[in-house]
Amino acid sequence: MNIQGEPAAVDADRPGAAHDADFVIVPFAQAHADGVRALFIAINRELAPAGMEEAFSAYVERAIGEEIGRIAAYFDPAAGNGFWVVMHDGAVIGMFGLERQSAEEVELRRMYLGQSFRGRGLADRMLQRAEAEAARLGYCRLVLSTAEIQGAAVSFYRRSGFREVRREIDTPASHKRVGGGLTVFFFEKDLTSPSGSRQRIVRWSDPVDLAAAGRTTNGRDFLETVLRGELPLPPICKLVDFSFEEFGDGRAVMVLQPGEAHYNPIGSVHGGIIATVLDSVMGCAVHTKLRAGLAYSTLEIKVNYLRPITSASGPMRAVGTVVHAGRRTAMAESTLADAAGKIYAQASTTCLIFPLSDAN
User: Fold this and answer.
1) For residue range 51-101, what is the model confidence (pLDDT) as tens digits?
2) Which fold has domain 207-358?
3) Which residues pair with 191 in a beta bridge?
4) For residue 326, what are the CA distances in angstroms to 110, 216, 292, 351?
5) Radius of gyration of the chain (CA)
6) What residues does CATH 3.40.630.30 cover in the chain?
7) How far is it, in rounded angstroms, from Cα 98 to Cα 76?
8) If one looks up domain 24-190 in CATH, what number appears?
């Protein structure tokens, strides 16, 4: 399901545990329709958090009417789409689809695997088949989304070479979305890189437009508008791969996704990447204290590196807090910690505050 949280019911499979002869991946046929519907309903009952049962029930009904109940038409191969099922002893125990987004990009949809068949390496087989089919159809990029309640799926896609590109709060309900305010993770993977090589594609919006929008409002309102997705993230977020999470009065929180593209020659995240994120979170904390017409610039920054960071460290949460905000200068401090709260780096800064009219 998409909460937008699909592909949903995958887990950190152990490759090689499933025998090819026991599980067969085949293109969807109408004879599979009842099995696909039953699996879809079962997975969504499993996923529904307490208190969201009604929202999931409404989502299931809508999705069946608009998509699941008409797989052949919705995923029409003639339109560049496709749908496949995993068969075992004559029953549908898994499925996934590909939905065209553009000439270059296709979205991985409805990747579900029955609960009793997880942990056998089937999710890896399904994903490999999906990537192969996407490449066969001529696409160069595979995209997908999954929700915060599907932590195993998020981990699975990260270890499978997908890169997180953004997060959104899932509010409008549709045949693809449950709604309800869940955080949705969006991933993409390049399908054209030679085996063993790495490639990152960085896309950003016009920074001039973003800066212009920030000139007419106070700092906190401006940053919260970006956080809500009403304005694009600044290009540095796309380049370094960190995102906004929270803003308060004199407080900012950001999340870095450490990856191999950040590595120094000895195989850990470069100190400059860490300094950039900490400088950003402290600067934005200062920005939340500024009225419209004021700007800031870093005068100095000091960073203490406490532990090495690698792609295996997982998301790193940076928290910046203002400790002094004057008319001309402000001071802030920050930490960078993993999901367990272990601190990997800390920093302090002094920022110069000045009228935008003084800036070039």
Assistant:
1) 777 877 888 888 899 999 999 999 999 999 999 999 999 999 999 999 999
2) Thiol Ester Dehydrase; Chain A (3.10.129)
3) none
4) 53, 21, 16, 10
5) 23
6) 24-190
7) 10
8) 3.40.630.30
